[in-house]
Design a protein that fits this description.
299 residues; binds phosphoribosyl ATP; D-Maltodextrin-Binding Protein, domain 2; five-stranded mixed beta sheet; six-stranded mixed beta sheet
Length: 299
């Protein structure tokens, strides 16, 4: 009996599919799909269908509008979703943020016409602010004890001051060029946002296992992305000093070169570290320095 039960649990786990909601088309879609592909998960038919099943991993993609993703995850229509933190916070649904993904970075900021002097957040007392993010804005206003009028509009928020609809706006800013071309200036950053993976708090154990596997792969891709494999030739008299500069994951690999008195040193460095140590390596006589991208990295 117990064996049979275990068998059914096994079969059930085998059949579980993790449903992932991603944006159908927009600023998040390309990077979301790229992340999944880099994790070695294959799909045959892109985002043309509403639903797409992987051919080599127990996941299914649901292509949706970004605004709807937090709700679909809350309602368990999708188990996890990739969406901007700004949408998660604005919608206020009870979802768990599982991982920050580091792309689609932006900020939610208050902006006013360029020509108007800004005295501080209290400037907004008695003013009208146009936004598509009324919940986040009203929280900020409350916290700062500011009484302003919120005008909720769904698009082209940046034109509101120019047409006399509002005194300021609260909107997403990335490069800042939209503000500049509408003669606005950013005066307060209220929230920094990036793409995140959210999950339903009621996710089943079996699906959680699939999610953990997916996160393991994503971490391997992301760690690899920020690291480089470095190879160099080192004169033996400075070998220890060079090893001290590039310690690597455990310690560097050192192999003798055919030419006497020289060794080949292999190591892993973060991109940032590389630029910091390159001059020291050259001063220590390192030659033939090669820096190679790493595809996946498991630490
Ligand atoms: O159709 P769907 O509803 O799915 O998409 P959408 O049009 O609502 O969203 P989309 O694709 O524009 O943005 C998706 C997510 O990307 C947002 O929720 C943010 O988390 C993130 N993101 C990152 C941005 C930006 N950068 C961004 N620059 N979202 C919007 N913008 C807009 C902003 O609204 C403003 O109009 O770009 C303009 C400002 O950009 P700059 O570079 O001129 O400052
Ligand atoms: Zn949207």
């Amino acid at each position: 009996m117990q064996i049979l039960q275990a068998f059914f649990v096994f079969i059930n786990e085998k059949m579980e599919i993790l449903k992932i909601a991603i944006q159908k088309s927009g600023r998040l879609s390309e990077k979301s799909l790229e992340l999944i592909k880099e994790a070695g998960i294959n799909f045959n038919n892109g985002s043309r269908n509403l639903v797409s099943r992987s051919s080599n991993f127990p996941v299914e993609l649901l292509f949706l509008r970004d605004d709807d993703i937090p709700q679909y995850v809350t309602d368990n229509v999708a188990d996890i979703g990739i969406v901007g933190e700004n949408e998660v916070l604005e919608k206020g649904y009870k979802v768990t943020t599982v991982k920050k993904l580091g792309f689609s970075k932006c900020r939610l900021s208050l902006a006013i016409p360029k020509s108007i002097e800004f005295s501080g957040p209290e400037f907004f007392n008695g003013k009208r602010i146009a936004t598509s993010y009324p919940k986040i804005l009203s929280k900020y206003l409350k916290k700062n004890n500011i009484k302003a009028e919120i005008h909720t509009i769904s698009g082209s928020v940046e034109i509101a001051p120019g047409i006399g609809l509002a005194d300021g706006i609260f909107d997403i800013v990335s490069s800042g060029s939209t503000l500049i071309s509408n003669r606005l200036k950013e005066v307060e950053v209220v929230l920094n946002s990036e793409a995140v993976i959210i999950s339903s708090p009621q996710i089943s154990e079996a699906k959680k296992k699939i999610l953990d596997k997916l996160l393991f792969r994503i971490n391997a891709v992301q760690t690899a992305g920020s690291n480089k494999y470095i190879l160099l030739n080192a004169p033996n008299e400075n070998l220890q000093a060079i090893i001290d500069v590039i310690p690597g994951m455990k310690s560097p690999t050192v192999m003798p070169l055919a030419q006497e008195g020289w060794s080949s040193v292999h190591s892993v460095l973060s991109e940032k570290e590389f630029w910091e140590v390159i001059d020291q390596l050259k001063d220590l006589g390192a030659q033939g320095i090669l820096v190679i991208p790493i595809e996946k990295m498991i630490v």
